[in-house]
């Protein structure tokens, strides 16, 4: 019952360092998403992908890059981390987007602190 | 643009109390509506959903009815338990799907604590 798996779960970075968050799903889902969660603001969409080899910007894409080289993986990169990127990051996936009632499945989150 | 507003927390109740968490939305047309729950240290899990007006979603004793006339999707439970302590998020999926991707719009979350 793996579902959506994120690594790492916790990370502390220094300002200016780079890192990559890995998301893997084993449900053969076409669509994948990266959200960030900040106190009092709910979740906000960073980037998403509608299929292997495709990515698109969400609501708050600045400072992040993504890649979807394989259908099951969706990577989120921070090239030069900033304290404003301290947050909890959630990966999610869904089978289809042909109607708005599809369930989106979330990973357990990655806690990132930039000092 | 589309938005979701939840009642502000935190909410603290005693076990077996009645729970209501208010959620209202602004959207074009008839979006799908969701409640997600986040237990301590875990990711978000879908609690229930409704895809059209007057639908009632239900799960684990929780219920919410899609009210088009009041643009609301309030979460209710008749008798809460300590294990219900979590953060609850109301969300909508906009009617317009851009590039085939379904993108959820979340409320700010409501932290619920149930005391024994």
3D structure, described in words:
The complex is a heterodimer of chains A (115) and B (116). Chain A has strands spanning 4-7, 10-13, 19-25, 31-37, 43-51, 54-57, 65-67, 73-78, 87-94, 105-106, 110-114. Chain A starts with a strand and ends with a strand. By secondary structure, chain A is mostly beta strands. Helix content of chain A is 0%, strand content 51%. Chain A has no helices and 11 strands. In chain A, strands 2, 4, 5, 6, 9, 10 and 11 form a 7-stranded mixed beta sheet that branches. In chain A, strands 1-3-8-7 form a 4-stranded antiparallel beta sheet, with no helix packed on it. Chain B has 116 residues and is an all-beta fold. Chain B is built from no helices and 12 strands. Chain B has strands at residues 3-6, 11-14, 19-21, 23-26, 32-38, 44-50, 56-59, 62-65, 75-77, 86-93, 105-106, 110-115. In chain B, strands 2, 5, 6, 10, 11 and 12 form a 6-stranded mixed beta sheet that branches. A 4-stranded antiparallel beta sheet of chain B has the order 3-9-8-7, with no helix packed on it. In chain B, a hairpin with a 5-residue loop joins strand 5 (32-38) and strand 6. The mean pLDDT of chain B is 91. The A-B interface holds A 4, 31, 33, 40-45, 48-50, 56, 58, 90, 92, 94, 97-109 and B 4, 31-32, 36, 42-46, 49, 51, 89, 91, 93-95, 97, 99-104, 106-109.
């Amino acid at each position: 019952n793996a579902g959506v798996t994120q690594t790492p779960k916790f990370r502390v970075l220094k300002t200016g360092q780079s890192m990559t968050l890995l998301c893997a799903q084993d449900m053969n889902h076409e669509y994948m998403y990266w959200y960030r969660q900040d106190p009092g603001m709910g979740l906000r969409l960073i980037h998403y992908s509608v299929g292997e080899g495709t990515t698109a910007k969400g609501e708050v894409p600045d400072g992040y890059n993504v890649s979807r080289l394989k259908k099951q993986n969706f990577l989120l990169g921070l090239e030069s981390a900033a304290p404003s990127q301290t947050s909890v990051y959630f990966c999610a996936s869904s089978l289809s987007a042909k109607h708005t009632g599809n369930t989106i499945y979330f990973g357990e989150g990655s806690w990132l602190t930039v000092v | 643009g589309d938005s979701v507003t939840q009642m502000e927390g935190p909410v603290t109740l005693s076990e077996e109390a009645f729970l209501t968490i208010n959620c209202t939305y602004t959207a074009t047309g008839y979006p799908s509506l969701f409640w997600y729950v986040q237990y301590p240290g875990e990711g978000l899990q879908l609690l229930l959903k409704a895809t059209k007006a007057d639908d009632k979603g239900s799960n684990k004793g929780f219920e919410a009815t899609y009210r088009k006339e009041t643009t609301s999707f309030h979460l209710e439970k008749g008798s809460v338990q300590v294990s219900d302590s979590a953060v609850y998020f109301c969300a909508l999926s906009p009617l317009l799907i851009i590039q085939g991707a379904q993108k959820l719009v979340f409320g700010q979350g409501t932290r619920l604590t149930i005391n024994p």
